Amino acid sequence: MKPLKERMKQRELTIGSWITFSDPAVAEIMARAGFDWLTVDMEHSGLSTGHAQEIIRVLDLCGVPPLVRVMENNADLIKRFMDMGAHGVIVPMVNSRQDAEKAVGAVQYPPGGSRGVGLARAQRYSMDLAGYMTWNREQSIVIVQIEHIRAVENLEAIMDVDGVDAMMIGPYDLSGSLGRPGDFDHPSVREALEQVYRVSKARGYLMGQHVVKPEPRLVLEAIERGIRLVGFSDDFLFLGESCRSLMAEVRARR
User: Which of 17, 92, 200, 214 could form a disulfide with 205 if both were Cys (CB 3.0 to 4.6 A apart)?
Assistant: First the structure.
């Protein structure tokens, strides 16, 4: 299997998901489910950094690229998760070129960035710093989230930042920034989303989207719109929807 970075460069379709449960068994179950990548969600979960490190290790050992959605665009946080062995980060609320440059700088070592050098799991606990530096320069991933109307207004400037591998639409926060949280049929929300689709398609830019509801038809609709990096729901929604659906079927038949 080609590295995720190469697949992204070639605009191959990849489908991943979000992990919010702390039990590494959940990460292992999802890693065996066929996802192309999985993201440890540190922004909207109760996960600690210790939980994140264990989940990253499990995903890595299962051969599924581990990404981390960080809490904020913070160099100290990003450095820690990369040192744990994350293959890349998804950075929320990137609304300008400067925000995007900050995210890239936090992942890359000098001279391409400003990341401090540590000796942790990613560097094999000091046994392969040189190899990791080469890997980091060539294979680490930076995905920025487009989830505010200001980001839509600055879309092309963000796209011009070297080192950003993809954008990912955060539909709920984007609709919230327009005063219509979750109202994806509102004209202002539809227009903002369509603008993102139009610009990314015209520039051939790798655009991702988090399809929150665990419904395959929504994934297929996103793919039809040109989305090639699909975040498909998350662990608790898969569990909840499956439980409710199966119990409803049982109750309907008894």
Answer: 200
Helix (H) or strand (E) holding 7: helix 4-9
Give how far Cα 159 sits from Cα of 84, 92, 96, 97, 252, Å: 28, 15, 10, 8, 51
Asked if residue 8 belongs to a domain, the reply is no
What domain range includes position 68?
13-253
Q: Which residues pair with 188 in a beta bridge?
A: none
pLDDT of 1 > 80? The answer is no
Largest CA distance in the chain: 67
Task: Specify if 4 maps to a domain.
Answer: no
| Residue 28 · residue 235 · CB < 8 Å | no
Kindly report the pTM of this predicted structure.
Answer: 0.96
CATH assignment at residue 126 = 3.20.20.60
Total tally of structural domains belonging to the chain: 1
Q: At what angle do helices 75-83 and 97-107 cross, to 10 degrees?
A: 40
- What confidence tens digit (pLDDT) does each residue in 62-107 have? 999 999 999 999 999 999 999 999 999 999 999 999 999 999 999 9
Active site residues: 44
Q: What's the gap between Cα 162 and its chain centre?
A: 18
* 88 assigned to some structural domain: yes
- Reported confidence tier of residue 176, pLDDT bands at 50, 70, 90: very high
